[in-house]
Hints:
By secondary structure, this protein is mostly helical.
Amino acid sequence: MGEFIRGICSPAKSLMSQFSYLVKFSVVSVIIISPLIVSLFFLQYEYGDEIRFTKKEQQGLELIKTAQNELLILASVIIKGQKNSTVNSQFSNFEGYVFVNCCNTVYNYSC
């Protein structure tokens, strides 16, 4: 087993023996630091995706909060039995939102 490893490592040993200590240190540093830099790049990319997704979620929550407030205003107007024109004016604020069946998902389709 030792001869096998020695045979595999002999080209690298002969190449490294030709270099000065500064070059040897630089080569070893590059070999060690390169995977670290690549790993940090992918980690940063992954965190960036999570941050973008979280921002979209926050925007969606704000939209849902606004839609719920408008729905409460509209429901209170209807319950109070105010005139039809008042209901229509309150409902016009609600324009542009589509509520999907039983979900709490709100889509804005206004252009």
